[in-house]
Amino acid sequence: MKSILITGAAGExxxxxxxxxxxxxxxxxxxxxxxxxxxxxxxxxxxxxxxxLEAAVAATKGxxxxxxxxxxxxxxxxxxxxxxxxxxTYNVFEAARRNGVKRIVFxxxxxxxxxxxxxxxxxxxxLLRPDSRYGVSKVFGEAVGRLYADKHGLSVACLRIGSxxxxxxxxxxxxxxxxxxxxxxxxxxCIDAPGFHFIVVYGVSANTRSQWHDKTAQRIGYRPEDNAExxxxxxxxxxxxxxxxxxxxxxxxxxxxxxxxxxxxx
Length: 266
What we know:
Layout: E1 3-7, H1 12-21, E2 27-32, E3 43-47, H2 53-60, E4 65-68, H3 78-99, E5 103-109, H4 133-152, E6 155-161, E7 163-164, H5 173-176, E8 177-178, H6 180-192, E9 198-203, H7 215-219, H8 232-235, H9 244-247, H10 252-255
Parallel strand pairs: 1-2, 1-4, 2-3, 4-5, 5-6, 6-9, 7-8
């Protein structure tokens, strides 16, 4: 993989990845609707909107691997999710097919499994249980990735990213945190790993309390270096109010707009 496109390159994760991937590949193409700062050697900026299919096709020409981050990064109104996360993600996969891109690393989310109960260890084979419209959009992205892997031969990695932070912020993130350097390492492993067809991996650091496990991340060489337990003493008391946010893996998005009966959720 010599030419890497990062969509959403001006965003929070994109900015960290850009720094971490710089110098490892001959070309980093940085795509966003906003400009990136301080374009350096080996970097190429393209201001574009992936909700426009033809713009996505233009952005992916000559690219070996796409790291697809662009879209609405958290729960939001349906019309925004539909355009940015569903139409935009479809466009990126279709553009990749048209241009013969070899691999897509798709930024999925832990919110695709958010309504599994805390205490249950979840892996890549457990049922999808999205906790939000945002989570539904990431389920869609994983399904599109599976389709384009099976039907069109793309190599696809879906990263179910946890709580991406410089440091964890609350007690839930003692389970779900992924550090900046572990994120960079995981993405590099997904870019560089030889010959996989379709994989799902959890983006999580080596947290003592983690309840997400998958062997695939280990098989592609991911060895996380950080552990949220280092912050446990200061975060133990920083919890969500009792209810869906504390009962289920997804945290606060489970509680937002909740009008169901949590006791009926197995």
